[in-house]
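Q: Please design a sequence for this.
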C-alpha cells in the first residue's frame, strides 16, 4: 500500500512539473508543447451520441438474435419445423424491412 501511495506522489509531482514547464516552453516559442483543443458543437456532440447509441442497440439486437438461433438449434426437430414455418411466412418485420431471422435450422446446418 505504501509503495502505491509513494508512486502516486511521484507521479503527481512529475505532472505538476510538466504543467508548470509547458506554458513556459510555449512562451519561449516551442509550439509543439501545447495545442488548441476544439470543442465540438452541441449538434455534432448530440449526433455522435445518437450514432453511438444506435450502434449499441444494433449490437444488442444482433446478440439477442444470435442467442435465439442457438436456442432454437437445441429444440427437437418438430418444434424447429414449426418455428421455421412461422419465420418463413413473415416476409418482413415491423419496420417493413426483410426479416433477417430466416430459416433457423438451415443456417445452423441441421436438417429439419
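A: Design:
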Amino acid at each position: 500500500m505504501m509503495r502505491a501511495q509513494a508512486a502516486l506522489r511521484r507521479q503527481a509531482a512529475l505532472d505538476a512539473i510538466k504543467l508548470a514547464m509547458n506554458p513556459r516552453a510555449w512562451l519561449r516559442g516551442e509550439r509543439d508543447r501545447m495545442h488548441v483543443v476544439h470543442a465540438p458543437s452541441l449538434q455534432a456532440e448530440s449526433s455522435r451520441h445518437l450514432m453511438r447509441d444506435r450502434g449499441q442497440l444494433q449490437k444488442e439486437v444482433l446478440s439477442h438474435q444470435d442467442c435465439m438461433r442457438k436456442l432454437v438449434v437445441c429444440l427437437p426437430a418438430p418444434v424447429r419445423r414449426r418455428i421455421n414455418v412461422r419465420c418463413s411466412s413473415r416476409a418482413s418485420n415491423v419496420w417493413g424491412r426483410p426479416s433477417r431471422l430466416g430459416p433457423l435450422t438451415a443456417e445452423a446446418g441441421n436438417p429439419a
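Q: Thanks. Anything notable?
A: The two ends are 61 Å apart (CA to CA). Residues 91-96 have pLDDT under 50 and may be disordered.
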